DNA sequence: AAGGCGGTCAACCGCCGGGAT
DNA sequence: CATCCCGGCGGTTGACCGCCT
């Protein structure tokens, strides 16, 4: 069987740490170093879970941590890295000496994402919110199809590419080479980037810059496609949460007029929300998510995104997607 | 002065990949 | 090979604080 449990979960203290506990943990780590967190609480005389000790140390007690406010340079770097990497907070934090992933994550959630929104930038896609809403409008005018209806040629082009996870798009051979500014950031990320899965098997270790240089790397392509599929899902969920606020300003009437009732009306009626307005917007996103599940579009997206021709508008894949539910 | 409200951030939760048994 | 835990990670929660009415 496996190992014994790390701690007696029913007998551990939770909640804020006291100065005494901090002192005990600090004293222990300063003499014994870190590692083997399972044994740390017992040896340090703490009634805490090892996991809690590790978190407290890495996020608060660790030497060389910065506790002052984020600088403008750090802020800019976070935004740039988030646009490239998404919410990989540990990778982003590695580029900010003295900052933890928790710091960066909190700062993003409480300050930066709001700042971007105030500037009209969607913090998920790093594109103008107007573009995002246009994409929703584009999706909305896909005419609803009854189940089993064969695809036809009436669908509109796919929405614009998002900037987020551009590295992945480079890897898939979809985007042109990065700008010098992007290259500078990528070079910094390389220094601390985790080894690729291939490295664990004695193969050459890949770095993020390799993603840009070698679009023929099958393993990397596969990883990139997974990221892209995840992006689509995350973006849809995020958009749903904001849809009621943002869509209130959106010209709903013109969208409805353009599609003659379209998906918005269909989604609204199918959910019993009464159609139109904010309820209709939320129901619309729900309908998309349901549609993904029912049709297996998640998997199709991966194939679709692997086809660069799709983005130049010449692929046959988009017409084979069968969007209607 | 008191209550409501929103912002901040430390801490917890739950998941996942890898490793130990 | 199966099972289970560890360490790491991102998402979420809730206590605390300051501001506003």
TrEMBL record:
Q: Where is the Myb-like domain?
A: 9-61, 62-112
Q: Which terms does the record give in the GO molecular function aspect?
A: transcription cis-regulatory region binding
Question: What SUPFAM superfamilies does the record tag this protein with?
Answer: Homeodomain-like (SSF46689)
An example Pfam family from this entry, by short name, is Myb_DNA-binding
Superkingdom of this protein's organism: Eukaryota
InterPro entries (alphabetical):
Homeodomain-like_sf, Myb_dom, Myb_TF_plants, SANT/Myb
Its Gene Ontology cellular component terms are: nucleus
**Does the record bear Kinase in its keywords?**
no
Domain HTH myb-type intervals:
9-61, 62-116
| Signal peptide interval | none
Entry-linked PROSITE patterns: HTH_MYB (PS51294), MYB_LIKE (PS50090)
Subcellular localization(s) per the UniProt record: Nucleus
Swiss-Prot/TrEMBL keywords = DNA-binding, Nucleus, Repeat, Transcription, Transcription regulation
Name this protein carries in UniProt = Uncharacterized protein
Q: What's the source species for this entry?
A: Urochloa decumbens
């Amino acid at each position: 069987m496996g190992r014994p449990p790390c701690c007696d979960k029913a007998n551990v203290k939770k909640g804020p740490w006291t100065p005494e506990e901090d002192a005990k943990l600090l004293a222990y780590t300063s003499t014994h170093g870190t590692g083997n967190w399972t044994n740390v609480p017992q040896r340090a005389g703490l009634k805490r879970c090892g996991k809690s000790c590790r978190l407290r140390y890495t996020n608060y007690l660790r030497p060389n941590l910065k506790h002052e406010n984020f600088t403008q340079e750090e802020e800019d770097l976070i935004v740039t890295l988030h646009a490239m990497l998404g919410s990989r907070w540990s990778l982003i934090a590695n580029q900010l000496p003295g900052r933890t992933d928790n710091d960066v994550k909190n700062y993003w959630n409480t300050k930066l994402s709001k700042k971007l929104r105030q500037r009209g930038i969607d913090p998920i896609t790093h594109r103008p919110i107007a573009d995002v809403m246009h994409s929703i409008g584009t999706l909305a005018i896909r005419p609803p199809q009854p189940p089993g209806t064969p695809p036809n040629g009436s669908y509109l082009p796919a929405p614009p590419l998002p900037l987020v996870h551009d590295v992945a798009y480079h890897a898939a051979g979809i985007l042109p080479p990065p700008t010098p500014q992007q290259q500078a950031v990528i070079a910094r990320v390389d220094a601390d980037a985790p080894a690729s899965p291939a490295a664990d098997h004695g193969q050459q270790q890949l770095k993020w810059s390799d993603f840009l240089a070698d679009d023929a790397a099958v393993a990397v392509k596969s990883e990139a496609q997974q990221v892209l599929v995840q992006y689509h899902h995350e973006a849809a969920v995020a958009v749903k949460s904001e849809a009621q606020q943002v869509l209130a300003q959106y010209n709903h009437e013109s969208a409805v007029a353009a599609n003659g009732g379209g998906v918005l009306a269909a989604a609204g009626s199918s959910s019993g929300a009464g159609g139109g307005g904010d309820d209709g917007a939320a129901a619309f996103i729900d309908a998309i998510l349901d549609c993904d599940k029912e049709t297996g579009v998640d998997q199709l997206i991966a194939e679709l995104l692997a086809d660069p021709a799709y983005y130049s508008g010449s692929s046959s894949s988009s017409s084979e997607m069968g969007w209607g539910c």
